[in-house]
Design goal:
Oligomer: single chain
Strand content: 5-15%
CATH superfamily of the largest domain: Type I PLP-dependent aspartate aminotransferase-like (Major domain)
Number of helices: 13
CATH architecture of the largest domain: 3-Layer(aba) Sandwich
CATH topology of the largest domain: Aspartate Aminotransferase, domain 2
Distance between the termini: 24 Å
Helix content: 25-40%
CATH class of the largest domain: Alpha Beta
Largest sheet: 8 strands, mixed
Structural class: alpha/beta
Order of helices and strands: HHEHEHEEHEEEEEHHHHEEHHEHEH
Shape: globular
């Protein structure tokens, strides 16, 4: 049987929680399970406020509004990221300014950020690739000195930390993803983490189509009305119920994934030592969450051949992002500051191996055997 690249996480209690929502006739947004998830993340990350959203994309859009991003503003980000990082700001009329990545972590090169700052720069948007934290102390220092906001794209960062701080809870705002490919999933979904309590009330309003409906449901006002711009960013409580079943055993899921990650690393170390592949690097100050396990091949031709070899042996492995500055929309809406020394080159070498909750040790062994078989040929 094919070893899939991803299998969405599932916990048996999910069906009971979803059924409970249906029987209570409360399946829309901000039901009991949405509130439970929000509280879980607030307690786990230490953020002042967490609000579930319909996606990480929408969480980032919400953050862009809270940052008062306007037409002509510039937002610094890596080009090696998913389109949502750029789209969230481009929708506000802002210009994505791409800078190069570090080849060791595939994260934004913090040493290249300051040179990209202009009088129009409004936000720095670091992306924590593979659940490994960016160099946030440096980024936060740059932001403070230049009076910039920091929006963390922590789509892959749930349960990961930088110097003991939860990814997503370090900058002004953070965005999580609960897409089916993520460590914890609601099928589609996300969350915004809000550092400053003063931003929480406006975030609630924007998330509720620009109305003060949340205050109404808490009994703080006797009717609600339209008072700000906004959109419909509330997920169904059934999605939250599915997610909450996983949060209850979040440590178990994390440990399972970390065990698979460590197994991969151990089995593939010889190929690395022989100079055939490169393995992921995790800085000492970071605790990763085993969101993915990737290797780096010599070049794009070797990567393509390895993907085909694995597929022929019933293993689905994939490459990742096409750098945004090379995409038609990226060329139209943004620009790359400085030299693309690593972004394109490293992206063409990276290959993601199957990784999910419940991946069996014998499956990891089989995958590693086939990778070794490829290089033996």
């Amino acid at each position: 049987m094919m070893i899939n690249f991803n299998v969405p996480p599932y916990v048996d209690t999910a069906i009971g929680y979803i059924t409970e929502c249906v029987k209570a006739q409360k399946i829309c947004g901000d039901g009991q399970y949405t509130k439970k998830c929000n509280e879980w993340f607030e307690k786990k990350t230490g953020t002042a406020k967490c609000l579930l959203t319909t996606s990480c994309t929408h969480a980032t859009e919400l953050a862009a509004i809270l940052c008062d991003v306007k037409e002509g503003d510039e937002v610094i980000m890596p080009s090696f990221t998913f389109v949502s990082t750029a789209n969230a700001f481009a929708l506000r009329g802002a210009v994505p300014v791409f800078v190069d990545i570090r080849p060791d972590t595939m994260n934004i090169d913090e040493q290249k950020i300051e040179a990209a700052i202009t009088g129009r720069t409004k936000v720095i948007a670091p992306v924590h690739y593979a659940g490994v934290g960016c160099e946030m102390d440096t980024i936060m220092d740059i932001a403070k000195r230049h009076s910039l906001k920091v929006v963390e794209d922590a789509a892959q960062g749930v349960m990961a930390t930088y110097k003991g701080k939860a990814l997503g809870a370090i900058g002004d705002f953070g965005a999580y993803s609960f897409h089916e490919t993520k460590n914890y999933s609601s099928g589609e979904g996300g969350a915004i983490l809000i550092k400053n309590p003063e931003d929480a009330e406006r975030a609630e309003i924007i998330r509720e189509k620009g109305t003060n409906r949340a205050k109404y449901y808490r009994g703080q006002i006797d009717k609600y009305t339209w008072i700000d711009i906004g959109s419909s960013y509330l997920p169904s409580d059934m999605n939250a119920a599915y997610l909450y079943s996983q949060l209850e055993i979040a440590d178990k899921i994390n440990e399972d994934r970390r065990a698979s990650w460590d197994h991969y690393y151990s089995r593939l170390t010889k190929l690395r030592d022989d100079g055939r592949i490169e393995l992921p690097y995790v800085p000492e100050e970071c605790v990763h969450n085993a969101h993915m396990f990737y290797i780096k091949c010599k070049d794009i031709e070797e990567r393509t051949a390895l993907i085909n070899h694995l597929k022929a042996n019933d293993i689905l492995a994939v490459f990742h992002y096409i750098p945004l500055h090379n995409a038609p929309a990226g060329k139209l809406m943004g620009w790359f500051n400085g030299k693309d020394e690593y972004t394109t080159k490293e992206s063409e070498r990276l290959l993601r191996l199957p990784m999910y909750y419940g991946l069996k040790p014998e499956q990891v062994d089989y995958i590693c055997d086939k990778v070794a078989e490829f290089y033996a040929k």
